[in-house]
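Reposting from the mailing list since nobody answered there.

I have sequence plus structure tokens for a pair of proteins and want to know whether others read the tokens the same way I do. The first protein:
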Amino acid sequence: MQKLIFTLITTFSLVGCGLQVKSDIPEPDYAIKHNQFVSNNEPIPAGCFAQLMTNLNGDNTTAAVFIESANLRGCNAANYPYPGGDETLITYSIEKILPTHSYQLKVCERSTEGSMSGSCDNVLVKFTHLDYQLPNSTKQVLSVIKLGEW
């Protein structure tokens, strides 16, 4: 009961200040099937998550990756070239499901085809929609952001 009262007071206080929670932002549209992320009924390629690995993204200069198409193609498009090289060398696993569309992922890159050597990162990510500004509109694009490491 106290939680309900606190929530109501907080909500009315924010409304009184002119601040409102946007309810028109949709929940991120993805799923987990067979321990892999899926968007638009297609698996999200491991290369999308590899772009958030510290050693592959220039020491954490990449903070987010568009999964869906922002304008022409997104990371999950069949013809999207993986910028890190050979995507068949990349794997990821969902290590822990956290609240609010957040996950602990283990993302690995093998050195060469067939080799067991390589590197792995423990990446903390969150699925969200990011606004992408077009000339006459704004599109909400499914994205994965790097929150840190675990």
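The second protein, same order (residues first, tokens after):
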Amino acid sequence: MNAHSERRQGTACIIVSIDRERSFWKNHYTELPCRQAGLGFDACWPLLACAYDIYLRHPNVGRDVGAVMYANAPEVVAQAVESTLAGRIFSRVMDRIHRATTRLEYPHIVQA
């Protein structure tokens, strides 16, 4: 087995329909921490999308590391989101991702 195939073992395909997620959050907006902080949905959506982006780009980091990445993301910093609020937003999105996304595991990559 070569190094390339060893890296690919345990590879996963993560599928997120961002349109479905936007619709979900729009319908559940009243439950969001950013709404409770007085942000409208149009101001809140980039914060939610940023959490999805972090998850999709870094699926193997834990929640703690992801939360730090999120709190330092340009979208979050630009809106001057307080760190506790940022953590609550990120956590809600991660809970949603783990309930609503499809994760297809590929434990054995077929070698050519």
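Reply #1 (J.P.):
I read it the same way you do. The radius of gyration is 16 Å.
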